[in-house]
Amino acid sequence: GPSPEPLSDRPASLTANTEWRLVLRVRPPAPAAGQVPADGDSPATGGDGPPVPEVEVVLRAVFEEESGYEPPQGVLRVLQDERGFLSSTEPVHRWRLDEEAGSDPLDKGGLWIWGLFKEPLYPFMFLQLEVNALTWPSGQHFPGGTLVAQVPHGRSKERGVVLREGELLLQQMVSVDADLVGLSKASIPQQVPCGTIRAAPL
Q1: Does residue 123 have a cis bond before it (omega within 30 degrees)?
Q2: Which whole-number Å values give the CA distances from 95 to 44, 125, 148, 189, in the listed order?
Q3: How far, CA to CA in Å, does 5 sit from each of 10, 11, 188, 198?
Q4: What predicted TM-score, i.e. pTM, was given to this entire model?
Q5: How do the pLDDT tens digits run along the chain, 202 residues long?
Q6: What are the φ and ψ backbone dihedral angles of 41, each rounded to 5 degrees?
Q7: Do 126 and 149 contact (CB within 8 A), yes or no?
Q8: Which residues contact 51 (CB under 8 A, 6 or more apart)?
């Protein structure tokens, strides 16, 4: 018969049994149209200059599921982060599987409830990562803070969990007029694109 598969050929899972290689390609976030970030940073292009190259951050991590939650969720435990990009105060990095953001919760799991699937098939993993500041050689600055990502998620019998490339967004607080005449201001969270994330099992 066929020889037993090596350990690394087991189907990937969102447990401590599978280590993942995460590649974050990070660029300075451009301020939203008409908004000036609180710290006064210049936009990602540095005025009229060429775009700043992305910085590649490579991590080794495991997805640890917390029992008792539906949809599944848990903590991203970082095993290796040579750049020191992610905050080391644990546990701050979180993940959960879910429908697309803003979908109707009444639709959720309908096929699962009727027994058409053995388990609910959540099409996305949502990640929330706390990160440190980065400075490019050209002087561009990445402020650090909270990164969020929506990563397409699927499963196959042979490969187990499959994660595809997702967009990284930096959560920033921006000041907006809280009334029509502009007498009062309010800070609201806004998500600004700042790169991509890819994940593959090791």
Answers
A1: no
A2: 28, 7, 10, 19
A3: 7, 11, 51, 26
A4: 0.76
A5: 554 444 457 899 999 999 999 999 999 887 654 454 444 444 444 445 566 788 999 999 999 999 999 889 999 999 999 999 999 875 689 999 998 765 554 454 444 444 555 555 789 999 999 999 988 888 888 888 999 999 999 988 889 999 999 999 999 888 888 777 778 888 888 899 999 999 999 9
A6: -65, 150
A7: yes
A8: 27, 44, 45
Full DSSP string of 177-197: ESSTTS-SEEEEEEEEEEEEE
> Six-digit token pair at 89?
């105060």
- If one counts every other C-beta atom within 10 angstroms of the C-beta of residue 48, the result is 5
Residue labelled with tokens 């908004």: 35
Q: Which residue has the tokens 């969720």?
A: 73
CA dihedral sign of residues 118, 120, 122, 128: negative
Q: Rounded distance, CA 18 to CA 64, Å? A: 10
Q: How far apart are CA 4 and CA 182, in angstroms?
A: 69
Residues 6 or more apart in contact with residue 118 via CB below 8 angstroms? none
CA distance 25 to 150: 15
Structure-block tokens of residue 27: 């660029």
